[in-house]
Amino acid sequence: MEKRELGRSGLYIAPLVLGSNVFGWTADEQTSFRVLDAFVGEGGNAIDTANVYSAWVPGHQGGESETIIGKWLQQRHRRDDVIIATKVGMQMGDGSKGLAKDYIKKSVEGSLRRLQTDYIDLYQSHQDDETLPVEEPLQAYAELIQEGKIRAIGASNFSAERLRAALQASTDQGLPRYESLQPEYNLYDRTDFEKQLLPVVQEFGIGVIPYYGLASGFLTGKYRSEEDLRKSQRGGGIGKKYLNDRGFKILAALDEVADRHHATQAQVALAWIMAQPGLTAPIASATTVEQVRDIMKATILTLSPNDVKTLTDASAY
């Protein structure tokens, strides 16, 4: 499968990243193992997690997803075959959070222990810590790279202004730079990324691995009414945000293009992201082997310029 370099990191990833926020939540350990086996078996090589997954579940503290991935890496002996991306910064079950230098250095040890590895390929600031100057986390990352504990760094949920400031600080002070951005981006949620962040990403040549590529499942086409929202645990999280004229127009365009290619709506929605300039690979999660096989077909689905225009026009904001 074609691999794309993430920024200038030297990390080459398949055009779809597996999101693991569901591991230890809606997918138990054995289900997660099957999903991981299927993903790698289909040619995927990048797995995205975070120390906070899944602290929102009653009784969880965070680290549940990393723990499952770590067990899988050891049992399957796949560490050298995959790119592991994890994150730090969001509030854990014990209330700890942020990007202070000492906290990052403490947190990476927890992630390394849970993942049962001695290095992390991509370590990401999960959200900006605006109480700190942008260079403080970069200083921590510089030390961790020097120690061989992380290979490259990325940012997620940053404003354009703070991302630009961090990238400039890296240049001015000789610090490691964020090689990737992980923003929310999909056919429905386009505005913030395209208007604010895309110019920064293109100016500095960093990779983009957007999350919520399927808009929490809405772009699979299975949620078309309020009644449909009761179909799954995630449906409740979608709420009524997407159930409006624009959302229905996007679904109609997805139906049209999917029918044209004998594909699923999910495959088309992900292929549209892959076709956007400056986008490296969307992130999508799965809770069954069948879902993995479905979304991985997006990597071999080539949309025509007319297909892309149909989807882009339908989702205009």
Automatic annotation (TrEMBL):
Entry keyword set: Oxidoreductase
Every copy of the NADP-dependent oxidoreductase domain together lies at 15-314
Q: Which Pfam families match?
A: Aldo_ket_red (PF00248)
Instruction: Name the InterPro entries for this protein.
Output: AKR (IPR020471), AKR_Detox_Biosynth (IPR050523), NAD(P)_OxRdtase_dom_sf (IPR036812), NADP_OxRdtase_dom (IPR023210)
Which GO CC annotations does the UniProt entry carry? cytosol
Keyword field contains Oxidoreductase: yes
Gene Ontology MF terms? oxidoreductase activity
Concerning Gene3D superfamilies, the annotation shows:
NADP-dependent oxidoreductase domain (3.20.20.100)
Query: What PANTHER family does the record tag this protein with?
Result: NADH-SPECIFIC METHYLGLYOXAL REDUCTASE-RELATED, OXIDOREDUCTASE-RELATED
What is the protein's name according to its record? Answer: Aldo/keto reductase
Question: What is the originating organism of this protein?
Answer: Hymenobacter aerilatus
